[in-house]
Design brief:
Number of helices: 1
Helix content: under 10%
Order of helices and strands: EEEHEEEEEEEE
Radius of gyration: 14 Å
Number of strands: 11
Largest sheet: 7 strands, mixed
Structural class: mainly beta
Strand content: over 45%
Distance between the termini: 40 Å
Length: 117
């Protein structure tokens, strides 16, 4: 199976930046034919979509992060990134990466992002 490993989370002060990474292992041919997504879930809230990038490189963002977050991918490394700038406490959540949509679909283990005020 394809496995996703996330990294880059941590504690940051409001106004700071973090860069999340999600590296996939498995069939590179399959990995690079599908899109990626970043999601987040705060305590007591539902998981929400943060950003997506298609296999063609098209990107979409939640309104709450537009202008602050950037999703990108490196096909050679089978990795997707989420650059997060101007962070606020409202961005505090566990962030999950997703590869593919529907079947097949793979998820990372989640990485905690905590933004202090």
């Amino acid at each position: 199976q394809v496995q996703l490993v996330e990294s880059g989370g941590g504690l940051v002060q409001a106004g700071g930046s973090l860069r999340l990474s999600c590296a996939a292992s498995g069939s590179v041919s399959v990995i690079n034919t599908v899109g990626w997504g970043w999601y987040r879930q705060a305590p007591g809230k539902q998981r929400e979509l943060v950003a997506t990038i298609s296999s063609a490189g098209n990107t979409n963002y939640a309104d709450s992060v537009k202008g602050r977050f950037t999703i990108s991918r490196d096909n050679a490394k089978s990795t997707v990134y989420l650059q997060m700038n101007s962070l606020t406490p409202e961005d505090t959540a566990v962030y999950y990466c997703r590869l593919g949509s529907g079947f097949p679909e793979y998820w990372g283990q989640g990485t905690q992002v905590t933004v202090s005020s």
